[in-house]
Amino acid sequence: MASKAIVERQITATSIQRDEDVLAAAARLAGEDLCSISDLSAGEVRAILKLGHDVKRNPREYRYALDAKQMVLMFEKASLRTRLSFESGFSQMGGNAIFFDQTNSPLGERESIADVAKNVERWVDAIVLRTYAHDTITEMAANSRVPVVNALSDFEHPCQALADFMTLEEHFGYSRGLNFTYVGDGNNVCHSLMLTGAQLGANVTVATPRGYSPDIEIVTLARERAEANGCEIKLTQDPQAGVEGADAVYTDVCVSMGFEHESTKRAPIFRPFQVNEALMARAASHAVFMHCLPARRNAEVTDAVLDSSQSIVFDQAENRMHAQKALLLLLLGGLSY
Asked: 160-316 has which CATH code?
């Protein structure tokens, strides 16, 4: 007779695990890296979100999916949501997460990134990086035989964007055709949101001050993906026009980590882009408010909006864990256990 432990591990696959999109993504993504949303096809983005919803609904089905796997988190920047959502999510699937604090010794300073990769790949099954320079992530990925995940760089924040669109699907029931507006600095979060929206068929409008638009290469790529998926990417310098009729209004801090020296300069430039009750009133009556957090209250967003019934910021934070669990399942072959 099989032991209780063995019986518990013989879990029947849910219907989502047999979904064609999910199976195709599992086959293609096993062993791959996620440095940018652009690494993913539209089908793979959809698959991650489908699996994320299932992981959230049925956590017991994935209890042993990453049994005995090891993941290291190497962070050059402080973190609350990213660190805890990765650690807790990985442990819920049977794996072990190891945190390696790089805040006082940036990667590549003590020894080359290539040498770090060639050491770490021999001990762990996945490397999760939160860095300043995006090149740190791409260099680690180029030199590592195990999957490397971008948990934030100065150029992109792909895991945040996946969780955000998972949250929108949870709230509205779909993402295709949604009118999504980002207001503020055209930063790393903005880049990943544009690319993710374009892959999912959402219409994305980005409203930024002059001189703070998103990177032109990202804009070009997002527009190419949007055209292929029947949606639009628009840029404007008018926040009022940008949020008109929006289903979702999103903002981020105006001064990201590493740009603190620009705080005084940026404050008056971004003041007209604050998301307040008057700005939200121009969006659709059913519109939701979103923020990747941490928020600088009464700077880029007022308390009245952040704490309102329209705000889904803590749903976003929760879904970081579920979306990342889905991503790790696909990168580490966790659907084949």
From this structure: 3.40.50.1370
- According to CATH, the topology of domain 12-156+320-331 is Rossmann fold (3.40.50)
Catalytic residue among 54, 164, 185, 252: 252
User: What does residue 63 show for φ and ψ, rounded to 5 degrees?
Assistant: -60, -35
Is residue 292 flagged as an active site residue? Answer: yes
Residue 297 bears catalytic tag: no
Among the listed residues 53, 83, 130, 291, the single catalytic one is 130
Per-residue pLDDT of the chain (337 residues; tens, 9 = 90+): 333 333 333 344 567 877 888 999 999 999 999 999 999 999 999 999 999 999 999 999 999 999 999 999 999 999 999 999 999 999 999 999 999 999 999 999 999 999 999 999 999 999 999 999 999 999 999 999 999 999 999 999 999 999 999 999 999 999 999 999 999 999 999 999 999 999 999 999 999 999 999 999 999 999 999 999 999 999 999 999 999 999 999 999 997 666 677 888 999 999 999 999 999 999 999 999 999 999 999 999 999 999 999 999 999 999 999 999 999 999 999 997 5
Residue 237 catalytic?
A: no
Return d(Cα 225, Cα 216) in angstroms, integer: 14
User: Which of these, 145, 106, 71, lies nearest to 334 by C-alpha position?
Assistant: 71
Q: 252 catalytic, yes or no?
A: yes
Global pTM value = 0.94
Q: Which of 160, 199, 316, 324 is catalytic?
A: 160
Residue 286 phi, psi (nearest 5): -95, 5
Determine the Cα–Cα distance for residues 256 and 187; give it in Å rounded to an integer.
8
Kindly list the domain boundaries of the chain, sorted by start residue.
Answer: 12-156+320-331, 160-316
Same fold, 12-156+320-331 and 160-316: yes
